[in-house]
Write a structure and sequence with these properties.
Layout lengths: L9 H14 L4 E3 L2 H12 L7 E3 L1
Antiparallel strand pairs: 1-2
Protein name: DNA replication protein DnaC
Pfam family, one: IstB_IS21
InterPro entries: IstB_ATP-bd, P-loop_NTPase
Length: about 55
């Protein structure tokens, strides 16, 4: 989780980390805060709330 004020490059940094992880053959999930909250709530209800996954 990357936290900080608006405009400091959180999304850019997360994208760069994710891109490198994909190049290394890892699976990556990207969530914005609202989607992550919904995903966690869905997990509690045992629903299949999947993030955007890229390999």
């Amino acid at each position: 989780m990357i936290l900080g004020p608006t405009g400091v490059g959180k999304t850019w940094l997360a994208s760069a980390f994710g891109h490198q992880a994909c190049r290394l053959g890892m699976t990556v999930a990207f969530y914005v805060a609202n989607d992550w909250s919904r995903h966690l709530q869905g997990q509690r209800k045992h629903t299949n709330a999947d993030p955007q996954r890229h390999t």
